[in-house]
């Protein structure tokens, strides 16, 4: 599998550092001679676009959740004429997250593409970026309607993407119900988060429809965040609830799944207790082939790319919309070994989109590009679409 290919710029996280301005970011790119968004044939001409610097929080070692997000952003950098700088965090705390944001701005970022790292502090991020005059976006956002209304009052807040988490939760439960499960044990993200609440709601609806009971839950991130923790959790589930006939992993799959799989294997329960998970994982092809995983809903890796399209248009002086979009970032459902193999080839070994494909959504390159084109792009995302475009 490919890793993040960029050179990570490790920035000193000194608390109290003042955030310096990154400029308004409004450019005046010269439109290129290109075809329509539906399929222009022009060669990539990134020289026509304004150069800019994107700032991101360093996701750490490549994993199947964050890796494809940044692989896709890196793959578009030459065509859209930006470079990426990264800031590390000493921890996931609010203070360290905000320090990383400040350091990206100090280091010259013109715009920030942030993920769910900032879910607990995005209003503070809004204040920091507003003062510094630096555009910013969020993916995997899950922002409440009240907070979205508040964010819309900030000039330099551009957009966010979200997932239909209630559907994802329901899909897991439906898959378990159709597999004949009745007694489930659940591993998930901490309660109280917006996306957790919505995933719970969907799963509860499926449990009611299929007559399933959730016997136990584990949401402690110190356990769900590692394979060793996953094994500890599943061993406790098996000892305490021998009637368990299905496991739902509602988050942190890339961290804990290996331990859950090994725990079931050691107990001789692989064939008796299927696993259904949100989020892709690096070993899923092997797990599906060995019947160690029965279904995964994930692949929601393009929120950063959608936000980057909006940012690139703004920086080139050709915004696609005057609104602050809140775009749905679709999931992909994988239920067979063949689908997992196709996913690994088309998304992990390559990318869902090429630079030339995405240039068609940049008005300075393609004057016919519209916001409606971008919305259509988000709605077309699927494994089948990727295969159809790239063969």
Strand order of the largest sheet: 2-1-3-4-5-11
Q: Give the helix tally.
A: 15
Our count of domains comes out at 2
Radius of gyration: 21 Å
Please give the largest β-sheet. 6 strands, parallel
Briefly, what CATH class of the largest domain? Alpha Beta
CATH topology of the largest domain: Rossmann fold
Structural class: alpha/beta
**What best-fitting shape do the alpha-carbon axes yield?**
globular
Structure description:
With 391 residues, the protein is of the alpha/beta class. It folds into 2 domains: 49-163 and 300-334 and 362-390, Response regulator (Rossmann fold, 3-Layer(aba) Sandwich), CATH 3.40.50; 166-298, Rossmann fold. The protein has 15 helices and 12 strands. The protein has helices at residues 67-80, 94-106, 122-132, 145-151, 165-178, 194-210, 221-224, 227-240, 253-266, 284-289, 303-315, 337-348, 355-359, 371-380, 383-390; strands at residues 52-57, 82-87, 111-114, 135-138, 157-162, 183-187, 213-218, 246-249, 275-278, 295-298, 326-328, 332-334. The strands form 2 sheets. It has a 6-stranded parallel beta sheet. Helix 1 packs parallel to helix 11 (303-315) and helix 5 packs parallel to helix 6 (194-210). The longest helix has 17 residues, at 194-210. It is globular, with a radius of gyration of 21 Å. The model is unreliable at 1-47 (pLDDT under 50). It comes from Anaerofilum hominis. This is Substrate-binding domain-containing protein. Residues 1-21 form the signal peptide.
């Amino acid at each position: 599998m490919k890793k993040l290919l960029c050179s990570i710029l490790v920035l000193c996280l000194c608390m109290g550092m003042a955030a310096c301005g990154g400029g308004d970011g409004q450019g005046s790119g010269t439109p290129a001679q290109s075809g329509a968004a539906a399929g222009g044939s022009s060669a990539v001409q990134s020289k026509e676009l304004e150069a800019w610097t994107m700032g991101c929080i360093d996701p750490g070692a490549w994993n199947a959740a964050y890796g494809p997000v940044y692989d896709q952003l890196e793959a578009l950098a030459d065509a859209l004429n930006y470079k990426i700088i990264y800031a590390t965090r000493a921890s996931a705390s609010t203070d360290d997250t905000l320090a990383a944001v400040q350091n990206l701005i100090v280091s010259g970022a013109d715009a920030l593409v942030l993920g769910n790292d900032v879910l607990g502090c995005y209003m503070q991020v809004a204040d920091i970026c507003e003062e510094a005059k630096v555009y910013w976006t969020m993916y995997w956002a899950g922002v409440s309607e009240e907070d979205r209304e508040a964010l819309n009052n900030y000039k330099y807040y551009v957009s966010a993407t979200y997932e239909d988490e209630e559907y994802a939760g329901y899909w897991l439960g439906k898959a378990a119900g159709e597999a004949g499960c009745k007694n489930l044990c659940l591993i998930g993200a901490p309660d109280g988060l917006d996306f957790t609440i919505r995933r719970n709601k969907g799963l509860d609806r499926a449990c009611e429809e299929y007559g399933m009971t959730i016997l136990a839950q584990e949401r402690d991130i110190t356990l769900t965040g590692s394979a060793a923790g996953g094994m500890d959790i599943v061993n406790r589930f098996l000892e305490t609830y021998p009637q368990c006939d299905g496991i739902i992993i509602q988050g942190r799959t890339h961290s804990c799944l290996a331990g859950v799989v090994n725990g079931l294997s050691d107990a001789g329960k692989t064939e008796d207790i299927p696993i259904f998970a949100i989020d892709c994982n690096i070993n899923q092809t092997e797990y599906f082939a060995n019947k160690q995983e029965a279904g995964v809903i994930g692949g929601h890796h393009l929120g950063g790319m959608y936000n980057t399209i909006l940012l690139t248009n703004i920086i080139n002086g050709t915004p696609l919309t005057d609104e602050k979009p809140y775009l749905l970032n679709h999931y992909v459902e994988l239920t067979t070994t063949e689908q997992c193999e196709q996913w690994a080839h088309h998304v992990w070994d390559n990318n869902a989109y090429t630079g030339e494909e995405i240039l068609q959504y940049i008005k300075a390159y393609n004057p016919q590009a519209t916001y409606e084109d971008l919305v259509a792009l988000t709605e077309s995302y699927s494994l089948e679409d990727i295969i159809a475009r790239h063969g």
